[in-house]
Amino acid sequence: MQNSTKVKKRILKARNAGAAIVREAEEKAVDLIIIANTPIRVRGNMHQIDPVVEYVMRNAPCEVLVLSHVYTGAAQTRVRETEKAETTAGVTR
User: Fold this and answer.
1) Is residue 50 within 8 Å of 38, Cβ to Cβ?
2) pLDDT at position 90 over 60
3) Are 45 and 8 in contact (CB under 8 A)?
4) Which of 5, 23, 31, 93 has the most neighbouring CB atoms within 10 Å?
């Protein structure tokens, strides 16, 4: 038995992105929406969900997979310090 999965992507122009994504999902009878979330505000350790992503999650007629990039300031600082130390020591990648 062969499982064939078709992935289609489209760029939509709309005043309200969330509503346009949901409408497109309804019209095309999609099984899954994959959407990226970029936190719009960070307060302490709390990341807020983009309003478009929240709208899609609440109104989509199908499953929604949200991809999220978590920024940790301490981890970024350690990476920069490590790269600086390696550069100073003459180590290259």
Assistant:
1) yes
2) no
3) no
4) 23
CA distance 38 to 71: 10
3-class SS shares of the chain: helix, strand, coil, % to 5 = 40, 15, 40
* Chain segment 12-63, per-residue pLDDT in tens: 788 999 999 999 999 999 999 999 987 666 666 666 788 999 999 999 999 9
- Cα(35)–Cα(55) distance, rounded to whole angstroms? 11
**For residues 35 and 64, is the Cβ–Cβ distance under 8 A?**
yes
**Can you give the residue ranges of every domain in the chain?**
17-89
If one counts every other C-beta atom within 10 angstroms of the C-beta of residue 88, the result is 8
CB 53 within 8 A of CB 37: yes
Contact 33, 62 (CB under 8 A): yes
